[in-house]
Amino acid sequence: MTGAGRVTVDLVAAELSASRDRSLSLLEPLDDAELTRQVSPLMSPLVWDLAHIGNYEELWLLRAVDGKEPMRPEIDRLYDAFEHPRAIRPTLPILGPAEARSYLSAVRSQALDVLERLGPEGLDPARDPLLADGFVFGLVVQHEHMHAETMLATLQLRSGPRSLAPDAPLPPGRPVPVHDDVLVPGGRSVRGTSTDPWALDNERPAHVVELPCFRIDRVPVSNRLYAAFVEAGGYADRRHWTDTGWEHLRASGRTRPMTWQPDGAGGWTCRTFGEVGPIDLDAPVQHVCWYEADAYARWAGRRLPSESEWEKACGWDPTTERLRRYPWGDADPSPLLANLGQRATRPAQVGAYPSGASAYGVEQLVGDVWEWTSSGFDPWPGTRSFPYPEYSEVFYGGDFRVLRGGSWATHPTAVRTTFRNWDLPIRRQIFSGFRTAVDA
Predict the structure, then answer these.
(1) Residue where one domain finishes, among candidates 106, 136, 157
(2) 3-class SS string, the chain
(3) Is the domain of 55 the same as that of 174?
(4) What is the pLDDT of residue 126?
(5) Last residue of a domain, one of 131, 157, 183
(6) Model-level pTM?
(7) Residues paired with 272 in a beta bridge
(8) Mean pLDDT, the chain, as a whole number?
(9) Are residues 71 and 205 in the same domain?
(10) Residue 43's domain spans which residues?
(11) Which stretches of the chain drop beneath a pLDDT of 70?
């Protein structure tokens, strides 16, 4: 969804269709047993995600917008993510695969009727904030794409042969010097947005920040660089870890990124969606938690960037003095600019997208891997929870750390310069990597 121009009924309908096609295609190759079993206590059964997508759509597009009575009132609590943690969801009387698909289809049919009845006037920017520029439809579209990425994380943890379609080719990378970094001058810039029609509450409002100058890696940290940390004994050296990080490391027994295994010849293999192969040393490291990213940065004599630094390096245009929607500008992402939308089920090599560089020359800020920052998840000045506090507000001020930029699994509709993701510092089943920074 472009950030420029009016949001139309046709555009909303197309985005709804694309998100549903993606969800169903991910699960179509799997039988009912695969859909209902839990591959890890970290993740829901896939069929829970499927029906939850439908329940969320019903709550917002049928009940909140159209005032309809609940279709299945007895299932609301089953699909309340706050009431039932992932670990216990297999014990709930959730809908089976056929029933979940039927429910999903029934909700979508009525949602499209609602959209048709609203018509262009119903999406007018002058309407109430829930409907202005189709915000509530954008909320539902982004939610479904977020769950598609969550389902991909589940499939990554799954044993058995690959169930996903073959990858599309990715552009080759290019040699990049170790921590080839870019100077971002200090001064005033804008953080957040007040104009992006589908931006979520924690991205708002736009406001001025002042930052000192800093240097930031041109590209994400690669497997090659991270392997040097592992092989230098980084996981055994207390000096590189925070107190809580070291405690977690000792308790978990982690000695390398989540999918890595020694190949018996001094190198590394990794398991990717059921397939084992050599690690691409020139691709960004993936499946590392915040503690691992922070420890690497300390070992390298650097640090993780704050999310304010990350956002400035990504989107601020010092010539026009405005924040771009994407690093390269406001044009929608394309395969020449970024690795997004599950075109391939892996990150591209570092240096693969010079055309997608920011105004400062920083590359691969959007797509490939989510990037950990040093920042905790807190509201921007003037943020107002909308349309419900459980999306962002209940997470502010805890142990969560902010990730930015999206991954190869993130749909373009669900990422932009201002988009904020967050997770606990121990999490690494997500498609997470990082880049480092240093004071200038």
Answers:
(1) 157
(2) CCCCCCCCHHHHHHHHHHHHHHHHHHHCCCCHHHHHCCCCCCCCCHHHHHHHHHHHHHHHHHHHCCCCCCCCHHHCHHHCCCCCCHHHHHHCCCCCHHHHHHHHHHHHHHHHHHHHHHHHHHCCCCCCCCCHHHHHHHHHHHHHHHHHHHHHHHHHHCCCCCCCCCCCCCCCCCCCCCCCEEEECCEEEEECCCCCCCCCHHHCCCEEEEECCEEEECCCCEHHHHHHHHHCCHHHCHHHCCHHHHHHHHHHCCCCCCCEEECCCCCEEEEECCEEEECCCCCECCCCCHHHHHHHHHHCCCECCCHHHHHHHHHEECCCCEECCECCECCCCCCCCCCCCCCCCCCCCCCCCHHHCCCCCCCCCCCCCEEEEEEECCCCCCCCCCCCCCCCHHHCCCCCEEEECCCCCCCHHHCCCCCCEEECCCCCCCCEECCCEEEC
(3) no
(4) 85
(5) 157
(6) 0.97
(7) 275
(8) 96
(9) no
(10) 9-157
(11) 1-5
Q: Examine residue 393 and state whether it is found in any structural domain, yes or no.
A: yes
- What was the pLDDT predicted at 35? 97
User: Is 220 in the same domain as 256?
Assistant: yes
- Kindly state whether residues 170 and 137 are assigned to the same domain: no
Same domain? For 99 and 123 the reply is yes
Q: What is the CATH number of the domain that holds 224?
A: 3.90.1580.10
Same domain, 153 and 170: no
Same domain, yes or no, for 210 and 233? Answer: yes
